[in-house]
Design goal:
By secondary structure, the protein is of the alpha+beta class. The chain has helices spanning 21-34, 57-72, 75-96, 106-124, 129-147, 155-177, 221-228, 267-272, 288-292, 296-310, 329-338, 354-361, 391-410, 424-439, 452-483, 489-498; strands at residues 188-190, 200-203, 206-209, 213-218, 238-244, 251-257, 261-265, 275-283, 349-350, 369-370, 382-389.
Length: 504
Amino acid sequence: MTPPDNVPAQGPPPRPRALPWRWATAVLALVAVLSLPEPLPPPPAGAGRPVFAWRQDEVWRALEQKMLGAHQAKPSEVDRLVADGLAQLSHQLQELRQFPRAPDDPLLGALERTVFELAPLVAARPGNLAPYLESVAALRREVKQHSRNWDLNSLPARQRLYRLLYGSRLAVEEVLLQLPEGTPWTELQRHEDPPSATPSVTLLGVTVHSGDLLVSRGGAPTSALISRGNDYPGAFSHVALLHVDPVTRVPSVIESHIEQGVAISSLEAYLRDPKLRILILRLRPDLPALVSDPQLPHRAASAALTEARTRHIPYDFAMNHRDPAAQFCSEVASAAYDTVGLRLWMGMSFLSDPTVTSWLGSIGVRHFETQEPADLEYDSQLTLVAEWRQRSTLFKGHVDDAVTDVLFEESPRGAPLPYSVPLLPFARLSKAWSWGLNQVGRLGPIPEGMSATAALRVSRYRSEHATRVDRVLRAAEDFRRTRGYLPPYWELVRLARETRNRGQ
């Protein structure tokens, strides 16, 4: 059959043209360029300070055995021992109130020992929990009172505050985690309610005021990295500043996120973001600055709110608290209070361990004398109002911490966080896409200010941490079934070490 006269004859289809060799070369060259690793800066020197270590493994094991023995003993005998211990603690607190104490006063060391020795007995007899919590809260108040006369940057003061404040929290939490299933316990622990003249609202059943500081712990692996990457490993990773409108009473939370920089959130949005614990801190009302101007905390919060509304404030990956142009979470609070002439973090944070500084340095940190969220609790200008924690998130936080501590321990000394080199070209293309989105006010897959390499390092860390946490949680459940109680922190550290290469 022949085609109609008005239809041209169809010849064979044209052969596709081969990609010119020069285009193939260009693509390969682009991939090669995108695969070039970024040069690392010189190894960070760090803060050059002593890194705190408990070095009390034998003490921890003895306390664990003491708890097991208390479970086997007559309840009346354990109750008597608890009563004797609480009476001793009360007597020691009375002594503490008699006159100012220096950080190296032996009485403070005796108080620490009493708190720890009581913990396993209370865990075995939870009916004694309330007076134990009240006694520990009284200890914390007295220690903060004495610390007003201490140099909080001195080694003796810093170690004493850490041992008593963080140590007593650790003791209390081990008790809470050992309570039998079904034992009622209050997620909210109230401490003090210093008066404030600033506008207020209610948060989790607590009256909070404009200018209050919300210190929390996130549930992400990087939250554990922030809280533990410190010369004094802590339990908190984030700081936010509360503002309450004096007319509408509408609360706003000003905080800085790695993904977007400084942002303004509602209280509802703040609470939706996963948190393992929340601490509420407030300035002491007897501070001379507050006596002169009771609205000073509200003015600080208002300054932060106004600045967040009027300009984009990127996240400060370098952690340079002296330059508020970019701000990490702690800097939101400190920069706001700087504007009204009050300096927070009377005791600075120091990052000195070579592994910690190399890890953080490889993702952008350049300042190792800075302001860490966990260290705000030790500021003698601040009062602890309340602490909120749930049982399930409390144990998860302990597991996260134990895994992080062991990952630090296992890393070659001074080595940066590793990353997947074959993924670098894709990460750089993703970074370019993110940069474009940032120019029109949108968020990209890689945060503003974070390099593609740093993003890969963080991704690798998150994956490794999550894998190890999953293994430890399974090992912890085996421990609980076998021994009848949850593994305390030192046992979690041991389990994290044992599961290093166990693909269970």
